[in-house]
């Protein structure tokens, strides 16, 4: 099982029946692969749909049914489509239960940077700033380090996506919850020690007496 | 007078230097014939307000490829390396706006509002140079309304009066932009008789649409 799969399978356990969820492009999109078909979760895509599904067959690809990356998708019975103002009213207005996004950095205050690297990568924030500002719960799904460098750091050095504190960070090594007191190490991945998580992080981690072992969705 | 005309005649009404709103999200819901005709007629120094610049060779990406654009106001350009290359080279001005904020700025522009108050972007680089307002203990950014000279709209169907209906995720910014420009040019996938789009299914009312183009329409 590779790192991204571990992360996606753990995030899948966070999604509750009846919730409306937005999955970012890339790793977060993989989360849907690890939910049972009767999980009772609705997926929203910011380009204007609730009820999206994976494309059931390549032959069914249509130019008018796409995800936020422009790739063809399917739609489940009961799906609905709407314009961009409605889409972001849902996101900003407290109607979106969970957003799962990738991350470049998360810091001790639980703030996220995930949209640009000045001078190197300036893709634009797309919907990320609205999602992090507005979703009821923000889950960051990211690898713990990038080319060996920690991504969980004392203070974000990259431009912030929002000043809002994210709710949960899931990596291939650990599950971390930002709180008023700091970053709490809730769980370690199977076979990973607390010391290994600490060594891979620059930020100070608060270690409970007995951190749990990360669950992995089937 | 009929609103229906050729793509070429509609695009001839767009001057060099025009400020365009163009519907679409990664090419879905971007009017394909109008884009190709802009390239064929070689319009210059365009300002494009749109969600994104798609990819090279796709939708608005074709305008970037052809070097017709001097400024882009968009939420995302990460999928188009050409846009990024021109931006870094200083040949293309790019103003990045959070997507929900862009939608509301366009909606406000077409709705007679001066702007909107949003919590999105507070405390980030998106807030630079902008006023903030505190209401009931929450800090908001003041985001100005935005308008364009011309909006290029893609729809699934138009009737001959200009009522529009859309299809799935091709709707996106189109209905908002149809409110916010002096001249609205719609490219529907089909034109149907008046009455075929029932009143409840009309998303963009006909009064907003000035020109309807279809492939091969000669009028």
Structure report:
The complex is a heterodimer of chains A (218) and B (219). Chain A has 218 residues and is an alpha/beta fold. Chain A has a single domain, classed as Glutaconate Coenzyme A-transferase, CATH 3.40.1080. Chain A has 5 helices and 16 strands. In chain A, the strands form 3 sheets. In chain A, strands 1, 2, 3, 4, 5, 8, 12, 13, 14, 15 and 16 form an 11-stranded mixed β-sheet that branches. Chain A is globular, with a radius of gyration of 17 Å. The N and C termini of chain A lie close together (12 Å). The model of chain A has no long low-confidence stretch (mean pLDDT 96). Chain B is an alpha/beta fold and 219 residues long. Chain B has a single domain, classed as Glutaconate Coenzyme A-transferase, CATH 3.40.1080.10. Chain B is 21% helix and 29% strand. In chain B, the strands form 2 sheets. In chain B, strands 1, 2, 3, 4, 5, 9, 10, 11 and 12 form a 9-stranded mixed β-sheet that branches. In chain B, strands 6-8-7 form a 3-stranded antiparallel β-sheet. Chains A and B meet through α3 and α4 of A and α4, α5 and α6 of B.
Return the average pLDDT of chain B rounded to an integer: 96
Largest interface: A-B, 41 and 51 residues
Query: How many E-type strands of chain A?
Result: 16
| Count of helical stretches of chain B | 6
Can you tell me the residue ranges of chain A where pLDDT is under 50 for at least 5 consecutive residues? none
- Please identify which CATH superfamily of chain A we are dealing with: Glutaconate Coenzyme A-transferase
Ends of chain B: how far apart? 11 Å
Radius of gyration over C-alpha positions of chain B, nearest whole angstrom: 17 Å
Count of DSSP E strands of chain B?
12
Number of domains of chain B: 1
- Termini Cα gap of chain A: 12 Å
Strand content of chain B: 25-35%
Query: How would you sum up the global shape of chain B?
Result: globular
* N-to-C series of helices and strands of chain B: EHEHEHEHEHEEEEEHEE
CATH C-level of chain B: Alpha Beta
Determine the mean pLDDT of chain A.
96
The count of domains of chain A is 1
- Which CATH architecture of chain B? 3-Layer(aba) Sandwich
Q: Which regions of chain B are unreliable across 5 or more consecutive residues at pLDDT < 50? A: none
CATH class wording of chain A: Alpha Beta
CATH topology assignment of chain B: Glutaconate Coenzyme A-transferase
């Amino acid at each position: 099982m590779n790192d991204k799969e571990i992360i996606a399978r753990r995030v899948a356990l966070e999604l509750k029946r009846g919730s409306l969820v937005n999955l970012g492009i890339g790793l977060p999109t993989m989360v849907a692969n690890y939910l049972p078909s009767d999980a009772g979760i609705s997926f929203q895509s910011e380009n204007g749909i609730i009820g999206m599904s994976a494309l059931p067959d390549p032959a069914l690809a249509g130019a008018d049914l796409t995800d936020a990356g422009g790739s063809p998708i399917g739609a489940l019975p009961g799906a609905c489509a709407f314009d961009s103002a409605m889409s972001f009213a849902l996101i900003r207005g407290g109607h979106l239960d969970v957003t799962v996004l990738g991350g470049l950095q998360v810091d001790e205050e639980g703030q996220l940077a995930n949209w640009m690297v000045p001078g190197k990568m300036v893709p634009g924030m797309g919907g990320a700033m609205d999602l992090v500002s507005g979703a009821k719960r923000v889950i960051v799904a990211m690898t713990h380090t990038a080319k060996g460098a920690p991504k969980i750091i004392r203070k974000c050095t990259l431009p912030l996506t929002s000043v809002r504190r994210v709710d949960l960070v899931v990596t291939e090594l650990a599950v971390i919850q930002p709180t008023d007191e700091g970053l709490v190490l809730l769980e370690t991945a199977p076979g990973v020690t607390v010391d290994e998580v600490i060594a891979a992080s620059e930020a100070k981690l608060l270690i409970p007496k007995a951190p749990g072992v990360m669950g992995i969705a089937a | 007078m009929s609103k229906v005309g050729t793509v070429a005649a509609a695009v001839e009404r767009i001057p060099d230097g025009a400020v365009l709103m163009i519907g679409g999200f990664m090419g879905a819901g971007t009017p394909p014939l109008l884009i190709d005709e802009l390239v064929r007629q070689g319009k210059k120094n365009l300002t494009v307000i749109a969600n994104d610049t798609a990819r090279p060779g796709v939708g608005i990406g074709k305008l970037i490829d052809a070097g017709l654009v001097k400024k882009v106001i968009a939420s995302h350009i990460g999928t188009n390396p050409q846009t990024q290359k021109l931006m870094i080279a200083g040949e293309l001005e790019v103003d990045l706006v959070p997507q929900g904020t862009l939608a509301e700025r366009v909606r406000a522009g077409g709705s007679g509002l001066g702007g909107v108050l949003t919590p999105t972007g507070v405390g980030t680089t998106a807030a630079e140079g902008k006023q903030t307002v505190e209401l009931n203990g929450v800090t908001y950014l003041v985001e100005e309304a935005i308008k364009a000279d011309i909006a290029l709209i893609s729809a699934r169907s138009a009737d001959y009066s200009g009522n529009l209906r859309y299809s799935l995720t091709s709707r996106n910014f189109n209905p908002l932009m149809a409110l916010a420009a002096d001249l609205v040019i719609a490219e529907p996938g089909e034109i149907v008789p008046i009455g075929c789009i029932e009143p409840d299914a009309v998303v963009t009312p006909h009064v907003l649409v000035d020109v309807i183009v279809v492939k091969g329409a000669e009028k």
